[in-house]
Amino acid sequence: MANLLPDNGSDSSSKPEASSTFESMKQNSLKVAGYGYLVGDAALFGAGLARGDHKEAFAGLLWAAGGLAAARYGNPESDKMLEILGARLGDYLREQGVEIPKEPTTAILNKQRGVIDRIEEFLYAHPSEVLNATYAIGGAQMIGGAFGKGASNNKWSAVSGALVTAGALAGLLLPEKKPDPENPPQGIIGKAVSWMQEKPLRVSGTLYGLNNAALIMGALKDRKTHPGNWSSSLKFLTAGSYIFANSMLSLSSKGHSDNSNEGHEAMSKLADASAHMIAAQPPQVQEALVQRVSAYLSAQPEAQMKADDISKLLHDKLKQVSRTVPAPTDASWQQRVQSNPPAVTTTPAL
């Protein structure tokens, strides 16, 4: 007799696939949020035009720039992180007078960057800050557009703008700080502050989420005062897109900890290129270079590794490098490496 019961195996196989999709979205939560915001921003822009509210339309257009920044520059892949870190490390080494061999194994350290490259590097380093900065300006625009001559006089638009502005400022001004297991926060206020500092974008996502209620109320008012106008329908689309995007933003980090796997992969490739560069130097300065490179990279937010861990990784890579490269004739930089302490720099904050 044929088995008419459903195949449990097929059901169970779909669960890992769904789980894998959700994990991928979490690791790229800022990028996913950016795409969600772009849909909502476009709908808000259309709603403003449909009702003749040019300030609201401008707010949607401005917010789209922030959504585009998150979608384009949020959660960079390992190859892009490798390109950024490699070029930055190469500049640092050349400033120290280190000669980098021009070979395929060290090509990532020899990349020359122009103005556009440096602008994009800044955007890759601060995608959430760009998003929140544009949202703060757009929120203020919505508040101004709700009152005054020729304004919509829709108080819900003002409330929406105020919530967006507050959420944007929270994301911009709150520093990101991981909890200290040895010194846990005490009391309700201490725990609340710790929760906000662990991921400031949680606060932004929460306030942006409250804005959704204001958007829906505004859409209901538009439907009542402007029957037959597309404005209300577009506002509902805006709210739906924002609800999804805000939930993704709440899972995001201001730094690069969301996609730690991509960061570790990039660091492994960069360590390999660095090991080939170090192996080409005289033996007496190699250890000093290992420590200097480790100290510099540990200060870069994309690295997400401590100096000791980077040093160990470099030593492991050096053991795998078997070829010998002639030492450079100019030894002036070798003396500086041995005598000067590492000069560590970090990417500037917004």
Topology at a glance:
Layout: H1 8-27, H2 29-51, H3 54-73, H4 78-95, H5 115-125, H6 127-146, H7 155-173, H8 187-198, H9 200-225, H10 231-250, H11 260-279, H12 283-298, H13 307-320, H14 332-339
Helix pairs in contact: 2-3, 2-10, 3-6, 4-11, 6-7, 7-9, 8-9, 9-10, 11-12, 11-13, 12-13, 12-14
Explain what this protein looks like in three dimensions:
With 350 residues, the protein is mainly α. It is built from 14 helices and no strands. α8 (187-198) packs across α9 (200-225), α9 runs antiparallel to α10 (231-250) and α11 (260-279) packs antiparallel against α12 (283-298). It is elongated and about 80 Å long. The N and C termini lie far apart (70 Å). Residues 1-10 and 324-331 have low confidence and may be disordered.
